[in-house]
Amino acid sequence: MEKKIKVLTWLVIVSIALNLYSFSRLNQMENNLSTHIDRSVYNNTHWLQSQVGSIQRSISEIQEDNKWIRSIDFRANENDSSPKKINMDVEWTFKEIEKEPNVLFQYREKGQGKDWTKIPAVQKGSTNFSASVILSPDKDYEYQLVSKGNLVKSEAITDIPGQYYKPVPLRKVGAGASSTGDGRKLMNYSANFAQVEPVLFDFYRIKDVKAIIITNGEQQTAVPVTESTHPYSTAHKREWILELPEELLDEDITQVILEVEYEDGTIQEKNFTYEIIESMAGMRR
């Protein structure tokens, strides 16, 4: 009987050892398979990214090769411009063009379906041309380049960028606040604004800024926005600061509109509600 018990005991021990060995091998195989799969996924992902990048580069090269216009430059004429009438010089370079072409720069007010104003271009080099146009700063324009010769060729209709002839808007460039210890209540809040793009003309310099704060959907408060005296605020990049009055910090602010007056008397309004509310919420966290 004792002998049988010993045999059974050894059988159980051997069985346990075999099971442990089997589990160990299975675990090792699982780890090896997982490592192999991870390496395979990484390699395939890397290969796919490389292929996508290569395709994108090829598409960009094809698009570049198919461009008729290599470059175009818009430049406001400061001496001949006035607040209501902006004179702009446009210069561009064709990739190629036939000899003695009749080249036109045509433009019109965007979205109005009006006839084109056609300006004969001046040839400055074999593929370089220029034209002068007159724009109104309160309108949006689109343009098209056309060449008429043995063949008539035209570029796609494109917008004239507003930053070359419109007043430079203010943009929010920063904010600051202090809050209570738990961070739930703001003790003060300020937002910084600047003309990020260069100011084209003296009459596009900002004369005055104020904020219209609307709380609870109806209560309106006018808050002055002061020009910064910080050394980083220069004649070429002036900054303004909006400091919210303490009594508005706990109110339900529903609109923040900046009213900007330029030296020529133009007044523009821009809505900063989302940016200010999101910024204030971030300061409370």
Short summary of the structure?
By secondary structure, this protein is an alpha+beta fold. It has helices at 2-66, 273-284; strands at residues 69-76, 86-94, 102-109, 117-120, 122-123, 128-135, 141-148, 152-154, 158-159, 171-179, 186-194, 206-215, 219-227, 239-243, 253-262, 267-271.
Gyration radius from CA atoms, angstroms: 34 Å
Physical arrangement of strands within the biggest beta sheet = 10-11-14-13-12-15-16
| CATH 2nd-level architecture of the largest domain | Sandwich
Ranges where pLDDT stays below 50 over 5 or more residues in a row are: none
How many strands? 16
Shape: flat
Largest sheet composition: 7 strands, antiparallel
Mean pLDDT: 83
How many DSSP helices?
2
The total domain count is 2
Give helix % range: 25-40%
> What separation lies between the terminal Cα atoms?
76 Å
What is the beta-strand fraction?
Answer: 35-45%
What is the CATH first-level class name of the largest domain?
Answer: Mainly Beta
> Could you name the CATH topology of the largest domain?
Immunoglobulin-like
Structural class designation: alpha+beta
Order of helices and strands: HEEEEEEEEEEEEEEEEH
